[in-house]
Amino acid sequence: MLKAVLLDISGVLSEDGEALPGAVEAVGRLQSSGLALRFLTNTSRKTSATVCDELQRLGFDPSPEQVFTAPGAIRRYLEHSGFAPTC
């Protein structure tokens, strides 16, 4: 049984700063279905908070906890593994 949906952002939900036709409505239907949703991007130049804000400006309604970026994934992995930066 389907429990979650992973949504790639760039080229799937949006392109060139614009939501793709029907994407906002489709994501809205998924959100109301009760499935766990995660918004993913491999961008390395934006924080999860920035990506979340951009999605909200486009009409999507993600919570910050639903947005995952490559740098954020690396940070969580390093923290979970007990690594910390040194000076």
Give me some keywords for this one.
single chain; 87 residues; alpha/beta; three-stranded parallel β-sheet; two-stranded antiparallel sheet; 3 helices; globular
What does this structure look like?
The chain has 87 residues and is of the alpha/beta class. Helix content is 36%, strand content 21%. Strands 1-4-5 form a 3-stranded parallel β-sheet. The chain has a two-stranded antiparallel ribbon with strand order 2-3. Helix 2 (48-57) links the parallel strand 4 (36-41) and strand 5. The radius of gyration is 14 Å and the shape is globular. The N and C termini lie far apart (48 Å). The model has no long low-confidence stretch (mean pLDDT 92).
Measured as a percent range, the helix fraction is 25-40%
Report the sheet-strand fraction: 15-25%
End-to-end C-alpha gap: 48 Å
Computed over alpha carbons, the radius of gyration is: 14 Å
Question: How many strands in all?
Answer: 5
Given the helix and strand composition, which structural class is it?
A: alpha/beta
Average pLDDT, all residues: 92
User: Count of DSSP helices?
Assistant: 3
| Main beta-sheet annotation | 3 strands, parallel
Q: What would you call the quaternary organization?
A: single chain
The global form is globular
Element-by-element helix/strand order:
EEEHEHEH
What strand line-up does the widest sheet have? 1-4-5
Extract low-pLDDT stretches: none
